[in-house]
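pasting for the record
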Amino acid sequence: MEKALNRQVENSVTSFDPIHFLQTVVSIDSCDPPGGELEIALLVHEQLLELGIESELDEFLPGRANVLGRIRGSGEKAAFVLSSHMDTVPVGTVPWKRPPFSGAIEGDRLYGRGATDMKSALASMIAAAGSLSKKAHLLKGDVILAFTAGESANLLGARRFIEQGLQKEIGAFLCGEPSDLDVIIVEKAALWLRATATGRLGHVSGHAGINAIDLIQEFLGRLAAMRLDCPPHPLLDGPTIRVGRIEGGSAVNLTPDHCIVDFDIRLPPPVDHLLIVEQVQGIAPENVAINILDFKPAVESLPEDDFVKLCTEVCSRHRAEPTKIKGVSYYSDGTVLLEGLSVPFAIIGPGELGLSGQPDESVSIDNVLKAVEIYEDLAMAWLS
């Protein structure tokens, strides 16, 4: 009976096609907002079980779900975590040359929203896990597959994993965000602020009032001219400020008494974000208040870290060109899952930097297949 079960598991492992699976999940709309990762989570959960891998599906909000897979090792080492999210950013309003949920293949490229960021890593990690499950007896620690909902906005899935105690198990953390198979060792912090202007209603036939939109306009001019106090970082560009949303006014013939603007500031480590908040508050006009919407800390490893060296060696072995060590402006689930920890961290993904959120997003099929080998080799080497 046991031999028959082993053959069944082995056959299911060898039959898994990461490219076909990637086409399937790209064809499913999981844009956040509104999210709706449950359909993908169900497919992932079922696929892991077919591969003989322990899997837990957690629908923690309606339509929002995480999947936690586990390959059990001997327990001599802390777990090696492979991290990927199942949501994507919205399609946007710019026309696509190909349907955004087609999963179409042309040459070496697979197209669709999430192809680069980061359903390709999801497919590669599942394929790698299928191979690793047959070698579990060689692993000195567990391999954990941490697949999340809601990373693109508020990291809902990662925060859910924190509530469930996953953070306590992490011994090394490999994220599959886009890197073009280079090794990323630092990501910027993301500080989200809101400026709220309070004016007074007015009308053209009477008192003009105080225009809250004018107050915000004055603030935005000062914000654009502001230089943030941040030391240079060898792998990152300087801090950035991007306005993402403005809301104000109720009617064209009324002076608006309320206006808000939400904006994103990206900061290199080790900048104290509260000092940046004070700096922004210092330029705000009277009747404009500044509040923190969210803060996602920076995550960083050092180039001389043993895990980083291993990642570089393994990637170089599978690529035709030298592997670069880089930093990025985006954030990952690591900003939540690794907060307060001092564990090995790196980002290696088959997706390409700069393609996230773009029309006609795509990924190299060759990168997806190489990522399978890289993830498997890294887990085996780190847990040997």
